[in-house]
């Protein structure tokens, strides 16, 4: 058996499939936040198609979804816009949120390190 043999028979996105728990998480997350938009992430070698929800402040969550058409049905039911990441990219507010969270984690770590 060669080093990469285990990857040869692997089809794209043959990992865990989307479940009702994934959809429930997305629905509940969106209900608790305002200004939510959906971003469809295409299937990759590692993951199935995913739906990324981003709130007005940049907070986000990501879960698997059955297909691009399922993502469209899901976002229409919730009344939120859906964008394709491959076409529009990720919004700046998401990157800003990540940067803020990184700063807060570093501050918390420094405070924890300074305690006797």
UniProtKB/TrEMBL annotation:
Region (Disordered): 1-22
Domain of life where this protein originates: Bacteria
Protein name as it appears in the record: Oxidoreductase
Organism, as annotated: Saccharopolyspora endophytica
């Amino acid at each position: 058996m060669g080093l990469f043999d285990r990857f040869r028979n692997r089809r794209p996105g043959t990992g865990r499939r989307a479940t009702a728990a994934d959809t429930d998480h997305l629905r509940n997350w969106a209900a608790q936040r305002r200004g939510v938009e959906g971003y469809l992430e295409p299937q990759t070698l590692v993951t199935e198609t995913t739906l990324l929800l981003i709130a007005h402040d940049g907070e986000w969550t990501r879960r698997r979804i059955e297909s691009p058409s399922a993502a469209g049905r899901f976002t229409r039911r919730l009344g939120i816009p859906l964008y394709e990441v491959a076409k529009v990219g990720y919004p700046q507010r998401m990157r800003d949120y990540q940067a803020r969270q990184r700063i807060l984690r570093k501050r918390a770590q420094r405070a924890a390190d300074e305690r006797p």
